[in-house]
Amino acid sequence: MMEQILPPHQRHSDTSVEAAEQVSERFSGMMDTVFKKIGLQGSFGLTDEEGQISLRMEGNSYRPCRVTLVDRGMVHDSGKRRKTIRNRNAVVWELTEFGKEVFKKWVENEPAQ
User: Most C-beta atoms within 10 A of its C-beta, which of 58, 75, 88, 109?
Assistant: First the structure.
């Protein structure tokens, strides 16, 4: 769905850039997965914790994907909060209008199962 991009990294560090380049293809796929999962929730949205649990993805993998989606204008803080497993408030993330347009195109182009 999205072009291959580098995950968040330290641009001043050659080793950080090299590591980001090595995982960029996998990161792009994980970012697509996070985007689709948030999109499938509609206006109910998804907390990071809910997304991590439902996708069986570690926070150190999930959060950089979600942060990148926010930075690209596809996901935003809905203003809603839900409790985490530890009874703390968590941001509920939803697709932006732009994200909804991209998601709609993905749904229209997804092969029937």
Answer: 75
Rounded to the nearest 5 degrees, what angle is found at the Cα of 50, between the Cα atoms of 102 and 77?
55
Tokens coding 98: 């732009």
Quote the CA–CA distance of 102 and 104 in Å, as a whole number. Answer: 5
Q: What is the pLDDT of residue 1?
A: 46
pTM of the model: 0.79
Strand residues in 46-113 grouped as ranges (E): 75-83, 89-95
Per domain, the residue ranges of the chain are 44-113
Q: For the segment 11-59, what is each residue's pLDDT rounded down to a tens digit?
A: 677 776 676 666 666 768 899 999 999 999 999 999 999 999 999 999 8
Q: By the 8 A CB rule, do 76 and 96 touch?
A: yes
Which CATH architecture fits 44-113? Orthogonal Bundle (1.10)
